[in-house]
Amino acid sequence: MKKISATALAKANELQKVEVDNLLKDKGYISQDDEGWQLTSAGKQAGGEVKESDKFGKYIIWPEDILQEEAIGKVITARIIAQHFGISSLKINPILSELGWIDKGLKGWVITEQGKKQNGIQKEDKRSGVPYVAWTESILTNKSLLNSINELQGGAEEETASNTETNKTTTDEFRQKFKAVHRCTDGHYVRSKAEMLIDNWLYMAEVIHAYERKLPIEEDVYCDFYLPTGKVYIEYWGYEEAEKYLKRKHEKQAIYSKYNFNLIELTEKEVQNLDDILPRELLKHGIKTY
After folding, report:
1. In CATH, what is the architecture of 159-283?
2. Mean pLDDT over the full length of the chain
3. Number of helical H runs and strand E runs in the chain
4. I need a labelling partner for 125 at 20 to 30 A (CA). Which of 56, 95, 180, 197 fits?
């Protein structure tokens, strides 16, 4: 069997090299350290070999059929995902888009950086040229996707095993102390007057938004506001005089940074000047208002 590099594999399978690397990593064939990709024992058993040249240094070669379904795992489309969950195929891509894994292009769907982390693969219809995204079967057990589909069907959100007692306790204490009693113009009930001002501003600016949407990650973290257009999160940082809530703020900021989510942060002072602040911040993420 002929063996070729990951770059050659990508070209032969009409993929980006990063997509090939992610597939091989997900299968346990390679791991990454400060020096780059390293071949694992599982990778060796699958036929991977380390080579070295004066021009390219160390690199790994693979059997040219390593990405075939029986070798790497079945690749499935949105239609197959819809059939698996028993819902309309027209709903799957919007759900994946809301999770921030794909974006709607001029035609078809384009994978995002978050989607690549979920092992999505950018494809193109050979006849029409319309782009679409395929996925490995592991997406069928992804907790974020399961929760979104469950909510769409009217079910309650599943508890995640990764909840830490400290984080859960802090969240529960916050919600008990600050009840959602402030009714916004659009009918949302929020936990503070500042959040009510933000919600009302978004509604009057005709910006679609969700309140306290769970982030599409394993950690049990909720945003203040989520804007599906632009995949933007908004956080209002109030109560910074309390050490416990200041710690909560820093933990959430670290999560947003870790996953490279689009985040707009607002302070009490900025909330009093939303007409100047939000149009400018939203425009950075392609959302035009007023």
Report:
1. 3-Layer(aba) Sandwich (3.40)
2. 87
3. 13, 16
4. 95
